[in-house]
Amino acid sequence: MITVAAVSPSPIADRRSPIVSAMPPRRLLALDLDGTVVDEHCLLPGAHRDALATIATMDVAIAIVTGRSLLTTRPVWKLLGLTTPLVCFNGAWVGLPGCNPIAQCVLEEDDVRLIFSELAGIDGAVCCYPTADRWLMDRELPLTRHWRELYQVPIDIIPDLRAMWRGSSCKMMFVARPELIAPTIARLRARLGERFHFVISQHDRFEIHRHGITKAWGLGKLANHPQFVALTVHRDAFGMIEKIGARI
Q1: pLDDT tens digit string along 172-192?
Q2: pLDDT of residue 39
Q3: From CA 238, how far away is CA 236, in angstroms rounded?
Q4: Which end of the chain is more exposed for a tag (fewer CB within 10 A), N or C?
Q5: From residue 144, how far is each of 68, 139, 155 by CA, in Å?
Q6: Is 147 helix (H, G, I), strand (E, B) or coil?
Q7: C-alpha span between 115 and 29 (Å, rounded)
Q8: Inside any domain, residue 248
Q9: pLDDT digits (tens, 9 = 90+) for 115-128
Q10: Sheet containing 86-88: order of strands
């Protein structure tokens, strides 16, 4: 996913803010992470890093907009030397690492417990995120055993996660054999209606958010923050990248 937009600081912006300073209007390039910036091994190709460095010299702000947590997004953000706020959890969390979020929309405790109960008995693993920087799972699967090495982050396995759960979760994710993904989503939609939004992020997993939470929602929250004016999407996103020969 690639979006280019115009960004300007609001006249009422605090010049001391780490998010924005008094500057002329800038364009913003919003990029997904997996399959766009990083490859299937979660590695950042040198050509991609060079392309984004070139784009940065064009006075273009670069924002990562991803379904990942802050925990697994921050390393790429740091590697690229970015300062633009992140849009994580498919839009449910917007902000800078180490700062209070600009916006967030979590699953409340009742939501989490309801989803746990609906997934009970289905062969898979449930992931929860009590903070943007923590990843919990209720069981290890053959599908997930390499994830710590793949993402280079800690993942805590808590077998009684459902019983002990307290508080909210930034999102929930269900991991299972690919043939179970679509039927499980259909079952949840039939039983829960429009209360939640389901996103198939890869062939063996889907993510669960409050209804209406999408990457576009998160990017909109970034755009409409008091420190920014609204973003106006441009049509030259792919043209800009093609001109510098970047395959992202």
Answers
A1: 999 999 999 999 999 999 999
A2: 85
A3: 6
A4: N
A5: 15, 9, 10
A6: helix
A7: 35
A8: no
A9: 999 999 999 999 99
A10: 86-88, 93-95, 103-104
CATH of the domain at 191: 3.30.1240.10
| pLDDT for residue 11 | 31
Domain range holding 118?
109-210
* Distance (Å, whole) CA 62 – CA 179: 36
Query: Do residue 71 and residue 118 come from a single domain?
Result: no
* CA 83 to centroid of chain Cα atoms: 16
> In this predicted structure, what is the pLDDT of residue 23?
45
Task: Look up residue 53 and give its two tokens.
Answer: 């460095």
User: Which residues of the chain fall short of a pLDDT of 70?
Assistant: 1-26, 225-248
| Residues 230 and 223 sit within 8 Å (Cβ to Cβ) | yes
Number of Cα atoms under 13 Å in the Cβ half of residue 59: 7
Output the pTM of the full model. 0.81
**Side chain identity at residue 163, one-letter code:** A
How many whole angstroms separate alpha carbon 58 and alpha carbon 37?
A: 18
Q: How many residues does the chain have?
A: 248
CA distance 216 to 3: 10
Q: What is the pLDDT of residue 227?
A: 52
